Amino acid sequence: MPVQAPPSEWELTSDEIKLIQKRAQLRATTKAEFLKRYRNPFYQTVPGHFVDPQNVRLYAYQQNTYRYLYTAPRILLAPALFVLAGTIVQYFVQKHRIQYNKDCNEGKVPYAKRPDFNAYF
């Protein structure tokens, strides 16, 4: 299905066409001037760096306050859970290892079921 132009573009007067052309020419001129200034490394609208006092106050506030590391019980929650999980895992692994060594020493685990020590080297 072909795309049709809206009826407003079909009923343009000569004055409207001239205005459109004038706007296009002005836009092209403005764009060329902007690109000329933008690409010129020696052109500066404001010499030096632009410093906004509100941003300076914001950065000073952010540097002088601890937003996340303030003293609160919940700051220790993540490390405590991490250590607790590691401790629980280590407890069960050690318990299994002690029981396995005990079973091996008592002869309950046959040599065929034991892992080959030389396979790890």
From TrEMBL:
<keyword id="KW-0999">Mitochondrion inner membrane</keyword>
<keyword id="KW-0249">Electron transport</keyword>
<keyword id="KW-0679">Respiratory chain</keyword>
<dbReference type="Pfam" id="PF07225">
    <property type="entry name" value="NDUF_B4"/>
</dbReference>
<protein>
    <recommendedName>
        <fullName>NADH dehydrogenase [ubiquinone] 1 beta subcomplex subunit 4</fullName>
    </recommendedName>
</protein>
<keyword id="KW-1133">Transmembrane helix</keyword>
<keyword id="KW-0813">Transport</keyword>
<feature type="transmembrane region" description="Helical">
    <location>
        <begin position="75"/>
        <end position="93"/>
    </location>
</feature>
<comment type="similarity">
    <text>Belongs to the complex I NDUFB4 subunit family.</text>
</comment>
<dbReference type="InterPro" id="IPR009866">
    <property type="entry name" value="NADH_UbQ_OxRdtase_NDUFB4_su"/>
</dbReference>
<dbReference type="GO" id="GO:0005743">
    <property type="term" value="C:mitochondrial inner membrane"/>
</dbReference>
<keyword id="KW-0496">Mitochondrion</keyword>
<keyword id="KW-0812">Transmembrane</keyword>
<keyword id="KW-0472">Membrane</keyword>
